[in-house]
Amino acid sequence: MIDAGAELDPVHPMEPPPPPHRPDGLTTAEVAERVARGEVNDVPVRSSRSLTEIVRANVLTRFNLIIGVLWVIMLFVAPIQDSLFGFVIVANTGIGIIQEWRAKKTLDSLAVIGEAKPTVRRDGAAAEISTHEIVLGDVIELGPGDKVVVDGVVAEADSLEVDESLLTGEADPVLKRPGDPVMSGSFVVAGGGAFTATKVGREAYAAQLAEEASRFTLVHSELRSGISTILKYVTWMMVPTAIGLIISQLVVKDNNFKDSVARTVGGIVPMIPEGLVLLTSVAFAIGVVRLGRKQCLVQELPAIEGLARVDVVCLDKTGTLTEGGMDVTEVRPLNGSDEAYVEEVLRAFGASDPRPNASLQAIIDAYPQREEAAWTVTDAMPFSSARKYSGAAFAEADGTASAWLLGAPDVLLSEDDTTLAEIEQLNQQGLRVLLLARVQGDDLDAPGAAAGAAPTALVVLEQRLRPDAGDTLAYFADQNVATKVISGDNAVSVGAVAGKLGLAGAENTLDARRLPTDPDEMATAMEQNAVFGRVTPQQKRDMVAALQSRGHTVAMTGDGVNDVLALKDADIGVSMGSGSEATRAVAQIVLLNNSFATLPSVVAEGRRVIGNITRVATLFLTKTVYSVLLAILVVCTQVEYPFLPRHLTLLSTLTIGVPAFFLALAPNKERAQPHFVRRVMRYAIPSGVIAATATFTTYLVARHHYSGPGALDAETSAATLTLFLVSMWVLAIIARPYTWWRIGLVAAMGLGFLIVLVVPWLQDFFALKLVGTTMPWTAVAIAVAAAALLEFVWRWVGRRFGM
């Protein structure tokens, strides 16, 4: 975490005074000169690991080191077939590198699409450029929702309010005036202006922030941390067990040295679940590629997993359930106002804001500015989500001065105003209503200006519903994910829109101004209602915290600056690609196609990854458990280890490696469950114990059955048959529920082992040959008994603890 405390004071006593403001910006020659001097914002924003880091992460692992050493030993002391496990690891690691490299390219290309494009003045003209093209002294324009991409000093300010909460933790916007510093990582919540860049590149705070915000990472994931925990315990078990096995096979038993080494290595290698980490990385990487094809930028890989665990989704209506645009359907004059005069006011209002929001843009579209404006704007107050209204003052065509407010009727009108009943009826139809009110005098900032404003007209707007929003809401309802619509608009109006889209509980609306401040009471209100209106940015943050206090995993979607605080605090923040730069910066997932309908794909991808990795982890850890237990039994009974590396390589490939790859990438719609380690070990430990017990029983019986030359090979073959059949039954359980391809997969693995048993050269290659009929059928009978016990244990664990 970056400590902002000491570094965020932009005005250091020893620093030079701020540069003089140049309204036209730098010239092309000056830009070239600064680039030549290196005064450019050239910090590379890493959206993924480099190829070197990918190779290092996949190759230089603890278990690869162990296996590599054992592989080299085996190449010297045993036939090549006992070294196959090394080639398998090389192939698996190569697959992991290739898959993550594909994910890197996808992530990098999407990051370019979603990159912020600040507006910079050069040679007297404004143009959008990439952040890495900004040079020292550039004049950068700011508007609502824009992120400050480098450090600088305000040069122009028009009611400019900047939110620095991402830097300081203070939620209240800061009013900026010319000469005030602005820090990269903050963003504009109201007003506009321009600032001069004073720090670029690695000197700017943005360089550190971007590195933290958009790094390709696999940390902070229950799945990854759970696997790390498992591997830690495996290491602790493996080391003493391996030492005991080495002593047993090399010292106690007077065997051929090379054969003893081979069997010792054969006992150590299967203890290592080397493919589990690799398979998890591959599953995550493929998830990124799949979502990338759907124009979904995953800025942090655990977000795929996190959204799959979400049980509450908080939606901002505007831009999520509705499209960005709106249409003016009606203007209703109030108190005898002249309709033509009202239209002139609205026409002038449209010219007062160079960066109109969706509501004002609808008014501009309905009442476009004439070529020669009859009214002149003398003052303007941009819309603020905290105020719920905007304002403008004009010099009318006849020279008369007037000032106006445009915003939420229930904020500008008193609670007993009769007009509210009329507005309520419109809201119940899902329409959005703005009130145009005239301020007494011409001072917009006068105390009580809003309270004393005279209602003049109602502007009725109709929002454009997203055609796919209804299906998405239905998907979440079907998946038992609660949906909460949180909006700054009127609660009844928002509820009507949600009702049109089929949101369950849309009739349960609550005005956030009546929301209790006590966190526990707020959490109760959040659970009981589905639609919330007139929500302030700080309330959105409090609502997320209240839900989290009840144990909910919360996702927050949004596209406006008023959503940033909640997006930052939610477990998963989801931003629209067309949203403000600030929301895209703090969100873990950015929907570049601006389609809320992409979210089910992200949820499905997360559930696929979590559900499938949980399944295949059971396969890997079952092998680890039976390998450790077999080694312990061998040490305790002072017998030869029953297997050579080639035997366990064959078993691992057919019962774990190949099936796990397909199962990890299969469709899976199971809802993600917590406690990954506990859930996996509940099944892996009894399965491994049963497999080891059955296998060692067969081995001991075979030792009494066979004698003479070649007895050890016959004993190994019988034990291998039992272990394969028990492992296949574990695979058959994990592959459920069966589909045609799952049945085919299990059958193909069984057929592969059968081919090894019947083809002579494969028998010799893998040193597997069943001798006689009594012992092979005994091995089968023991495996059948073990399979029945497996079924009983799995069913009991499922009933006792839940699947």
UniProtKB/TrEMBL annotation:
Residues 1-25 are annotated as: Disordered. It is found in: Cell membrane. Residues 118-212 form the P-type ATPase A domain. Keywords: Membrane, Translocase, Transmembrane, Transmembrane helix. The chain crosses the membrane at residues 59-78, 84-101, 233-252, 272-291, 616-635, 647-668, 680-702, 714-734, 741-762, 774-794. It comes from the Bacteria. It is a multi-pass membrane protein. This is Cation-transporting ATPase, E1-E2 family.
